[in-house]
Amino acid sequence: MSEHHIVPLKIYMLIFAALLVGTVITVAIAFVDLGFLNTPVAILIAMVKATLVIWYFMHVKYSPKIVALFAFAGFFWLIIMFSMTMQDYYTRGWHEPLPIPFLEN
Amino acid sequence: MSAVANAVENGHSNGKTYLNETYGIKSWLFTLDHKRIGILYLITLAAFFAAGGVFASLVRIELATPQGDVFEAETYNKLFTMHGVVMIFFFLIPSIPAVLGNFLLPLQLGARDVAFPKLNLISYYLYTAGGVVALTAIIAGGVDTGWTFYTPYSTTYSNSFVALALIGVFINGFSSILTGVNFIVTIHKMRAPGLTWFRLPLFIWAQYATSLIQVLGTPVIAITILLVVFERLFQIGIFNPTLGGDPVLMQHLFWFYSHPAVYIMILPGFGVISEVIACFSRRRIFGYSFVAFSSLAIAILGFLVWGHHMFVAGQSTYAGMVFSFLTFLVAVPSAIKIFNWAFTLYKGSVLLDSPMLYVLGFIGLFTIGGLTGLFLATLGLDVHMHDTYFVVAHFHYVMVGGMVMAFLAGVHFWWPKMTGKMYSETAARVGVFLIFSGFNLTFLPQFVLGYMGMPRRYHTYPEEWQALNVMSTAGASVLGIGFTLTIIYLLWSAIGGKRAEANPFQAKGLEWENAGSPPIAHNFVDIPIVVEEAYAYGKKHDEAQIESPEPAKEEEVV
Amino acid sequence: MSDAAHSLGRAHHFETAEQQYESATLGMWAFIVQEILFFGGLFGAYVVYRNLYIDAFSAASHQLDISLGAFNTGILIGSSLTMALAVRCAQKGEKNTIIGWLVATIILGFGFLGVKYVEYSHKWHDNLVPGSSFVWEKPGYLDVAGGQVKIFFSLYFVMTGMHALHMVIGVGIMLWLIAKIRRNEINEHYFTPIEISGLYWHFVDIVWIFLFPLLYLIGRHT
């Protein structure tokens, strides 16, 4: 129907090329010692690639805003899951186990 | 008489409604009509509720005496496990969305069906398939892990049919997810002309919030179930402490869904309460937008509090503090609703028909349940009360005193809409009395027992607690009689009861004013155009406010 | 769902074809959201254990073949391109070219699965498949806890296995689409099934975009 925007071939090829380049960069940079930054950088590149796929291949750029909201909500909920779970594991070592009085006799 | 009103009265010109439009078992089992699917769910759900009730009765029989003299310990473990699994996964979670949501959503939205009718039927069969698999596990010998199937007991040490039961739950989960998908799209895309978001009935807002949780939460328990099944069958080791696996991780993943799941259970109930209270106070809901937004707030905040089930599981105390604080926050939107409903009653013309009696019971019992949840959210108290009967009493107050009573309120309120028949109001009031009194007699003593330290999931207890346990068992008998009576008089009315008028409670809403009781197969003669707010009770010239697109001609009236 | 009396593919409960198209898109996205959370549970377990056992995860990750993984990433990105081009042809009504691009997508999908099969059999030979046959005895890594390595491989097999299962389902969907096209149930006015199947396929690609670095590239700089 009228609202279906036909994405130019050039854009698809550009995105495809960008995704391949991103893959090459991901592999190459894995062999470079960036200290603690290796992991965040790898994730960042993956997020950029995912965004390109979502925005162009999945046509979210040309879709109603509600679609983008749905996509964002899905990933945001993952952030909730990861962060609220990890706040348990990060803080477990922060104190000694609480004393259990009746066991100490 | 306008064509609309006449269609409402006669079910279109040939007297055909969705119930008798087509005949035969195949026309029901292969139906794509959301109303018939709702009825199918109602029947299957009632069967599961009865099964879960049988397990509960056996548990209470054992607990009438302090010794474990009726069942062996392992059998008792299976009984409470299966009570929980059947009631939570196969009754409570589907209940209102599957029955009332399916039936009412298109009608309240002014649509002819949900967005994906075939998917709707698939949801129903996934539900029954999951139920059959779970029942197979039960009949084969049962599961004894508790409905929470914590590792490493469920993965390594239990000798019961864990994998089979979990696969049944897994399949059922897809039913929930697909229903959520269907409802979200239906609410976004199938609203009648003029039906803006803030003119929607609050039942729709509640159903929308529920569907968000179903889509965002259920897949996480799906993957948790798969991991537990893989660990059990293939020893992959992911929750095995001897390898470095963390059983608490399984609890994190489990409760990430299972806490929001309780909001899947209660939010639709909140929606029903709003509808019934508005009708039987003859008033619009006080603070409509607060109630609407509070549903969304509960859905979102509900995902941030799951650690309150794990305060003593080995979770970090600092994480416990965070979860405790957030749990106090999530109580706020629920309280907002209670206040708004109370203010709706104030200066309303309150009618005490049976749906309203259930609603009033809900408000009291849910408040008790919710407040006792705050007790448990308090870290210091939970250390003592976790895994005691205090917890059992708390969740039964919200799930039975709250959710089941809301479900019954909704089933009664919309019964004439769904069946075209009216139940006996006297029988219904007896039912309310039995259920309300039986419920409180069952579970109020359990708060005391829990506070005194009686552990849950034990089939024996010290003798000094027998009196309270006997009270609880007696209450359970009354409760069981109440539920049985309810099923009987409802069935009786459906088969041979009095024919209901189109709008016996003079309720407002598209399902009441623009569709018959029962509705025709495609819901409306013409799609209505909405021009007024929801719950416009007490407005003059009510009939003129909701129009059909074309003026009625005399020839159309039959 | 098709009815000769209506325009192709329009179901009776929708008022307009546009409403149906937008509903289908929104519905598929809602489904994708739940898929995100489904895989997300596995990623959550991964995040926890990687933080706890970084040395074991690093040692385990070194056992994976980067060139095969990178090659597979390229294949999958290519299949996303061919899928997007199939949708584009559908929008333009070029029936035969749609089938061509769908076939290309299927071939690339099979290529991916073939490589995965090779990788899985390598792991099986090395006794790295979790279960009773699992043995950790890699020279140079003997001080790393075998149990923790086993947890990595549990996650590896479940995550890539789930992903592969979703790809198999995707290939099945492609074949179903080809059948629909050949039966003339899809034209330039109604190609919604292709579009929403494309959404599904791209999502499966996105999962792999995250899986590849997180599984194959841990601690490669040491």
**Beginning-to-end CA distance, first to last residue of chain A:** 80 Å
Give the DSSP E fraction of chain C (strand runs of 2 or more residues).
under 5%
* CATH structural architecture of chain C: Up-down Bundle
- Report the structural category of chain C: mainly alpha
What is the count of helical runs of chain C? 6
What is the H level of CATH, i.e. the homologous superfamily of chain C? Cytochrome c oxidase, subunit III, four-helix bundle
Q: From N to C, what is the helix and strand string of chain A?
A: HHH
* Count of discrete structural domains of chain C: 1
Outline type of chain A: flat
Structural class of chain A: mainly alpha
What is the number of domains of chain A?
Answer: 2
The major beta sheet of chain A can be summarized as: none
Extended strand count of chain A: 0
How would you characterize this protein structure?
The complex is a heterotrimer of chains A (105), B (558) and C (222). With 105 residues, chain A is mostly helical. Chain A is 66% helix and 0% strand. Chain A has helices at residues 9-30, 38-57, 65-91. In chain A, helix 1 (9-30) packs antiparallel against helix 2 (38-57). The mean pLDDT of chain A is 89. Chain B has 558 residues and is mostly helical. Chain B has one domain (3-556): Up-down Bundle (Cytochrome C Oxidase, Chain A). Chain B is 67% helix and 1% strand. Chain B has 20 helices and 2 strands. In chain B, strands 1-2 form a two-stranded antiparallel sheet. The longest helix of chain B is centred in the middle third of the chain and has 35 residues, at 247-281. Chain B is globular and about 70 Å long. Chain B starts with a helix and ends in a 13-residue tail after the last helix. Residues 541-558 of chain B have low confidence and may be disordered. With 222 residues, chain C is an all-alpha fold. Chain C has one domain (17-216): Up-down Bundle (Four Helix Bundle (Hemerythrin (Met), subunit A)). Chain C contains 6 helices and no strands. Chains in contact: A-B, A-C, B-C.
